[in-house]
Amino acid sequence: MQNGSLGEARVRAFLLERFWVSTRSVDVHGADFLIQTRDLSRRFTDLLPPRLGVVQAKFSQDEKTAHHIPRNYLYDGETTISEFFLILALGAEDKGKLYLISAQELTQFPLSRNGDKETHRVVPGPHLAKYEVKNISTALDAIEQSSSATKRGRQRTFP
To answer: What SS3 state is found at 9?
Structure first.
């Protein structure tokens, strides 16, 4: 519980640099956070409402913890959800790091079974170096661009 709270707090602070961040009382379909770009000119009642991003937050205090991301979190039918991101907070205090992984990138992680679900297995380690958030602005730009690149006319119901 403590680690989950710490991971979510770190991820929330990172996202608040650029987005409005909403939480749910229940984690449904991997949506720990729903994010929206800060745009006062768009309303949810508009014909084309603002896009929402979905963020799953995970925490690992070391490289021994595997995280299983259900495959159905990443897809809308046959298409990967461009607005879905896993943000992994790793390490404590001065050794803390964040890793940003898109749904498209997550599909490249090994597929395994976790109970009756197909999941992509994410284990912290050196292979995650290319996903490490080294520049906050660049990482937030990637999230923002991914959401705006989605076809505006397409309707999607978020979990």
So the answer is: helix
Indicate whether 150 pLDDT > 60: no
Q: Is the pLDDT of residue 153 over 50?
A: no
Measured distance CA(70)–CA(119) in Å, rounded:
4
Q: Is 124 within the bounds of a domain?
A: yes
Q: By the 8 A CB rule, do 73 and 65 touch?
A: no
Indicate which CATH number applies to the domain containing 144: 3.40.1350.10
CB 75 within 8 A of CB 81: yes
Cβ-count burial 22-38 (b if 16+ within 10 Å, e if not): eeeeeeeebbbbbbbbe
Q: What is the DSSP string of 127-153?
A: GGGGGB-S-HHHHHHHHHHHHHTS-TT
In a domain, 159, yes or no: no
pLDDT in tens, 38-89: 877 777 788 877 778 999 999 988 888 889 999 999 998 889 999 999 999 9
